[in-house]
Amino acid sequence: MDRPPPEHAPPGDPQLALPPRAPDPVAPGFPWLAAIAPLAGAAVLWAVTGSALSLAFAALGPLVAVASVVDARRQGRRARRRGAAERAALLAELRSAVADRHAGERAARWRRVTSAREIVDGARPLDWRAGPPGRVVLGHGTVASGVRVDGVPADDHDRALLRAAGALDDAPVVASLAGGIGVVGIEPVADALARALVVQVTHGGRPDEVGIAVPAGEAWGWSTPLPHRSGPTALRVVGRSERDATTTPSAPTDADGVATIAVADAAEHLPPGLETLVRVEDHRRAVIERRGEAAGPTRIVPDLVGAVEASEWADRVRAMAERERWGPESGVPARIAFDALEQPASDDGSRTTLRAVVGQSALGPLALDLVEHGPHAIVAGTTGSGKSEFLVAWLAALATCHPPDRVSFLLVDFKGGAAFEPLRGLPHVTGIVTDLDEAEAERAVLSLRAELRHREAVLLAEGERDLAALPDRVVLPRLVLVVDEYQAMIDRFPDLGPVVADVAARGRSLGVHLVLASQRPNGVVREQVSANCAIRVSLRVRQRADSVAVVGTDAAAAIRPDTPGRGVVDAGDGCPVVFQSAMVDPGTLERLRRSTSDMAAARRPWVDPLPARVAQSALIRLVRAATPARDAEETERGPALDFGILDDPERQRHVPATWTPESDGHLLILGEPGSGRSTALAALAEAATAIRVDVRRLVRPASARWDTLRALVEDDRRTTTSCLLLVDDLDVAFRDWPDDHRIAAVGMLERLLREGRERGLGIAASAGSTHRLPAGLRESFGSTVLLRHPTRTDLAQAGGSAALWRSGDPPGSGQWRERRLQVVDVPSLPSDPGAEARPLRVGTAAVTAVVSMRPRADAATLRGLGHEPVLLEPGLDAVARAAIAAGGGAGHPLVIVGDADAWTANWTLTALVREEAAIVVHGGSREFRVFAAGSALPPLLDDPVAQCWLAPPGGEPMRCAWPVHVDN
């Protein structure tokens, strides 16, 4: 028996060792000195004191000495028990470590061999290599283990542990074929073991390299289908009928490398010179004897294979061999033109097949059918293997055999975009998307869910569960989604993985088929996807594991680099076969385009991305298409304002971007400068005007904004219906205003935001950022439109979806309700000239009091207009000024000019003229407060120098234009 070398502990694992035995404590001696010393002390005391009582101390010495001896022995026994317990725990840990290493060693040994049971059960694919295997598995039993435990055993328990560590149970027991193997025992079980050995040899040897010679007769009839008959004989089986030793072959060493497996009833009937002898007692017991082995027989559980299961396995091997996939003489051509292939006859009315010939194998033309054997396919192949050319050939064959109303293609190329360009122009091609436009690729794949819903709706309407059962009048072609470099697509868009998995799960009945191509699909294509990919194609790959993972054999890793298009395909029947892909030249594709040019193009499964500019007419068409549903909604939600178009790829459509103030709340439009905020407000104004909604605006100049706010606030006593207020640049709208007016304006706007919806007032405002907005304003908006932002991070911080951010978005592009938005392109709103300031008329009242920041200059201005103003000084006698004021009523209007300090100092004069004089304020809020009563604010001035306030006697202040200075 061939014994493999011992397996040592993996690097890094500590060496196992027996724990040392605790040493026995030293037996304590009798403490003579401690016993004698008290006697001497007692004698001295008696001699000094003469007291007989001192002699009693003499007894303490022996008593203490005996107690010390007893205590020492007790401590020794305790130490021995503690040492024994600690060693027992260490031994238990050692046994556990030995068991763990045995498990690893056992698994490693089984991985290196292949038992006949695994072969016939299909757990191991065929592994045809050049040359026969050197060793075969006879069964499983106990073999020498590579686990070593150092240390000297202390007792029988230690010796038992060392024996257990050195023996590995349930391990494969192997033997070398080189010296020959003899099997002795009753016919059923001995023949079963011999069959197991032959199965292992034919499983591991290529038919053109390993030939077998078996006895004639029914017992070995199961091996007839095996293809291992044409190669040079490497194994000879000697049966029970060949009992004459002179006619049977001698030891294999005399037969030029031909191994021998002999079966007999007794050892004396075997050929001489066999190195290994297996005595099979029953199906659970066998004994192995090896010539010259001193260790003696080894007991095993034999590895047996029944005749029926061996016959079934041989039939499967024959099916594989008929494809002649193992050798260069397989009959597969080195190159084949697409025009040389004969495609199956086209059945225009059939929905039950997508059969197409894509190349040629040793057995003839190779046809693939996504409907019959799919529904999906995986294609592997390294750079230069011809993977893209194979995909083009497959699609060209499908287009040749099936019209576009029966099959359509959606092609995704993530390696530059050139792979599928030759197919552009075919009516079957609904679109070619590439990694050069990643957004387009993402929306195309995301739209597949909408396509699945569409197909489900069609099937539901027809009362069918499968696309193949639809009547001919229903136009719903099968959709083949081909992704070249699937791994690159998933790396760039991980969220598309669940979409592909959804298509893989539901695609069969809905007629959606996946063809996923990648250099290394293993580990990239998810298990729930690959489980539905029955068609497997592997062109040349670099690693054996990649070939095995795709087609169940390593044959694709052995393909030469100079044979592009050569590959291994499992067409869905579980039998891989070598083939050569057809090559499609440009002339063939041009003829195919001409022959299909009169066919109607297939329906596109996704909608185009939003345009950079949306015309008003395009929006009107969308609105009209949604009018029936919209009319019903508006009766409950109030009027709706359409201001752009939303992209809805998951439903394969564009829809109007609609804001309904009654239900959506006030609208805030955020975006960087130039992003189209003003255009969005103009679009809302256009929509509101079209449905007769009153539109108000807070636009420059400041006076107009103030007057509009005041008018809307003061209108709260009346019922305002369908009014829209537009505020542009809300974050900076009141930035340069005086403090009093700014605070009042923010308060009025907060009130309108809070109470507006109850009065039928909707507010739409734009801003560059929410950070500059007061909290009261920021939190009062119920909806937000996010236009272009400088960075993805800025957009995410504003509450938008970072996935929808695109660099270089055109003006008006953004997102609304987590959908991409393009605002309708309408003319900008005209600028507001602002509130007109009436000319200042001085002298209409008997007395005019002018409060000015520059009293002397303003007095000169009034003097230039023909008035005789009196300049008020802070120290002027108030009574005299009262007399002057009283004298001004005789038909000569009196104009008094002073600054705030002068009027405040002459408080008696101020009180006198407050009720009867016309008050003119040329300055700011400080000047206005001289005569103002209460907290009411005057109208806001656009220019405090060119404008002023005029309050007639007993009237409200009004905005007036300050006269221009005229020099005499």
UniProtKB/TrEMBL annotation:
Pfam family, any one = FtsK_SpoIIIE
Q: Name one GO molecular function term.
A: ATP binding
Give the SUPFAM superfamilies listed for this entry: P-loop containing nucleoside triphosphate hydrolases
Indicate which residues the UniProt annotation says bind ATP.
G381, T382, T383, G384, S385, G386, K387, S388
Region spans: Disordered: 1-22
Q: Is Transmembrane a UniProt keyword of this protein?
A: yes
Annotated transmembrane regions: 30-48, 54-72
List UniProt keywords, sorted A-Z: ATP-binding, Membrane, Nucleotide-binding, Transmembrane, Transmembrane helix
Gene3D superfamilies to which the protein is assigned, alphabetical: P-loop containing nucleotide triphosphate hydrolases (3.40.50.300)
At the top level, the lineage of the source is: Bacteria
Give every FtsK domain span: 363-548
Which InterPro entries does its entry note?
A: AAA+_ATPase, FtsK/SpoIIIE/SftA, FtsK_dom, P-loop_NTPase
What name does this protein carry? FtsK domain-containing protein
